[in-house]
Each structure stands twice: as structure tokens, then as C-alpha cells.
Amino acid sequence: MKVVQAGLVGLRTFELIYTDLSPGPGEVLIEIAACCICSSEVPRYTDHEADAPPSFLGHEPSGVVVEVGRDVDLFKEGDRVTGAISMGFATHALAKTQDLLPVPEGVDLQHALGEPLMCISNIVRAAATRFGDHVAVVGCGQMGLLAIAALKQAGLASLIAVDVIPWRLELARQVGATHAFGADGEDAVEAVERLTRSGADVVVELTGKPGGLELSARLLRMRQGTLVMGGYHQIRDQYYLHEFAYKGLIAHQAHPSYSPDVMADYERALAALGRGVFPMEKIVTDRFSLDRVADGFEALISHREGFVKGIVVPGL
From residue 165, how far is each of 56, 92, 139, 181 by CA, in Å? Predict the structure, then answer.
């Protein structure tokens, strides 16, 4: 089948590339309905991790099966799917059937963000919160907001959103945070200590930055508080880890590789999506056509006001 892919051909530059795709044994061809723009791919977009061009990004798509390869019996043409699908900034993409899951009935494909929701399942399970815990989420971008939405079910003493951007904190309250600290120069550490008296029992860090990680450790109580590193710390940088030792914390690096069963986390996440746990109408804020992928990355990088999660919709 003739397909169109958005290829990264240079610094912050995509071009539309026309090619042919057909599914091999055990594969299906998916017509992409939407693919999210993920901060983990920003270094490639900004050329910190240069590949030989073109590079094909996009690992958070959903779509509809339009062709099946030989020996495929799990899916058929017309099935709505998401999962571990790469090269998603395109009209179509190939995927192995063992990497796919069905999208729940009634869920908009533009909201069926399987990969980031799988990450949220993994992160929340790593947090292992207990009834009555004080829990803080540091970084209220789309992953932080999704984590708050998932954690609010747990009967916590408090669910604290920490960010420096006021409108993000307001949105965090809307999706389930009981308290919001850190904007307009507020000292989040002092605020959390006043509220909890001793610090948070669990902190989920979703900044991917040294400063965010240091702040997260400072927010924790002494003696085996739980720090979940959900941010992707992929850029070589300088980290100050005094609080890691001083607090005697327990840290979990909740990259997808932390999950004991990634497909089980996909299943949990999609079941929660089907139950309405995630307020996707508040999370997916911007849509970009296939020829405007770079505009989506620029909106993400600039922290444009009101931008939470951008998706590329080939049909626009």
C-alpha cells in the first residue's frame, strides 16, 4: 500500500516521504488515527541524538487494521488497536500482532494513547501507595496529570501537585489533586512540610530534569520514603544526590523496562481508560496535521500556555 511518512531529515525539520508498506507474517498494517508527540523524542528532534536522516519518530499511535499478513489470527481488518507501534507519524504503520491490544469500545481513537498510559500503569504500580499516604507528583505536564488522575482513586491523605506553572496546577486540581504548590515563587518544600508535618510518603517525579529530581527527593519524609523516577533522564547532565543519601529513600526507576509485564500494564491502562479513569478531553489539547509535526514539537518545547498533549492526526 502507498503510504506517507513524516521523516526527520535535519535539525527540527520534517519532510513527507512516500513509500510502500505491506505486512509480513505475523504483522498487520494499521491506518494511523492519531500519534502523540512525546518529550522523550525531543533530543532527536533537536539533534542531540543525531541519526542518519531520515529518522522516523512517533511511538504512541492508535489506529485501525487495514491489512493483515500471513499467519495472523488475533486481529482482522477493521479492528481498532493501539500498543507498541513505531514510526507512527505517518498515514500507516506496521506492527507485530503480539505488540497490539484492542481499543475499548466507546473510546475515541484520538484518546487511545496506549504507550503513555502503559507508562502510567507502570509508574503508579511502582508507587505502591497505601491508604492514608501523602503523595506528591512533581511535574504536571501530561504524564503528571495522568498520574494524578490514576492516583486519586487510592484513598490518600493528600495528593499534591507540584509545578511552577500556575495554569498547570489549576488543571492538576481539576483532574484530582487535593493541593497544588510551587507557582509564583512558592517554596514547595515548605508547603509540603506544613501540610504533612514530616514530608511526603511517596513522590512521583515526572520532570526528567536534574532540578526536578532533586526537588522530589527534598519533598520526601525521612527513612525509606518512596521516590518513583517516572521522568526520562536521557541527557547527560550533573545531578546532586545528597538528599538520596540523607533521606534514606527508596528509589524506583520506572522506565517501561521496570515493568515485570509490559503487556499486562497495557491491559490495565486500557481497561482504566475504558472505565473513564483518565480525563483525556483535558489532556489532549492540540492536534497537528502530518505536515505540521515540527509545530507540535515546538509547542511542546516552548511550554506554550494551554498545551498539554499534542497529537498528530494524519487525516486533518
Answer: 32, 36, 9, 10
- Domain range for 43 is 2-103+279-312
Q: What is the DSSP string of 51-70?
A: -SSPB-----EEEEEEEE-T
Q: Are 218 and 195 in contact (CB under 8 A)?
A: no
Residue 131 sits in the same domain as residue 239: yes
Residues facing 81 on adjacent strands: 63, 102
Which position has the grid cell 498539554? 308
294 and 236 in one domain?
no
pLDDT in single tens digits along all 316 residues of the chain? 999 999 999 999 999 999 999 999 999 999 999 999 999 999 999 985 556 789 999 999 999 999 999 999 999 999 999 999 999 999 999 999 999 999 999 999 999 999 999 999 999 999 999 999 999 999 999 999 999 999 997 899 999 999 999 999 999 999 999 999 999 999 999 999 999 999 999 999 999 999 999 999 999 999 999 999 999 999 999 999 999 999 999 999 999 999 999 999 999 999 999 999 999 999 999 999 999 999 999 999 999 999 999 999 999 9
Kindly report the backbone phi and psi dihedral angles of residue 198, in degrees, each rounded to the nearest multiple of 5, phi listed first. -135, -5
Answer yes or no: is 240 within a domain.
Answer: yes
Total count of domains within the chain: 2
Phi and psi at residue 105, to the nearest 5°: -55, 140
